[in-house]
Write a structure and sequence with these properties.
3 helices, mainly alpha, 0% strand
Length: 108
C-alpha cells in the first residue's frame, strides 16, 4: 500500500471514530435513554432491597423454627407429667395438623 491509501484509511478511521462518539453522545443524551437509566437504577435498588428483606426473613424463619423445635421438645418431655390424657390427645391432634410429630417421648 502506498502512503496516500494509508492516509485515506487513517482519515476514514478518524471520521468513523468521530461519528461513533457523536452517536454515543446522542444516545446517552436522549431523554428516553436518560429515563430508562433512572428506571434501571430504581429497579436495581428495589432488587437489592428485596434481597436484604429476603435474607432477613430467612434468618428470622430459621430462628423461629429453632425456637419452635426447642419448645416442642420441652413440651414433649413434660407432656406425661403435666397434662391429662385428654389434653395429650388434643396436643397430638394439633401436632398432626401442624405437620410436626414428636420424636421419642410419647410416640416412641
Amino acid at each position: 500500500m502506498d502512503t496516500k491509501t494509508l492516509e485515506a484509511m487513517v482519515s476514514q478511521i478518524e471520521v468513523l471514530k468521530d461519528d461513533n462518539e457523536r452517536l454515543k453522545s446522542m444516545i446517552n443524551n436522549h431523554p428516553e435513554i436518560a429515563k430508562l437509566k433512572v428506571e434501571l437504577e430504581t429497579a436495581k435498588e428495589f432488587v437489592a432491597m428485596g434481597d436484604r428483606v429476603e435474607r432477613r426473613l430467612r434468618v428470622s424463619n430459621f430462628e423461629l423454627r429453632q425456637e419452635n423445635t426447642k419448645l416442642k421438645e420441652l413440651l414433649n418431655k413434660g407432656l406425661d407429667k403435666n397434662f391429662s390424657p385428654e389434653t395429650i390427645v388434643e396436643i397430638r391432634k394439633f401436632w398432626q395438623g401442624d405437620g410436626w410429630k414428636p420424636k421419642g417421648g410419647l410416640d416412641g
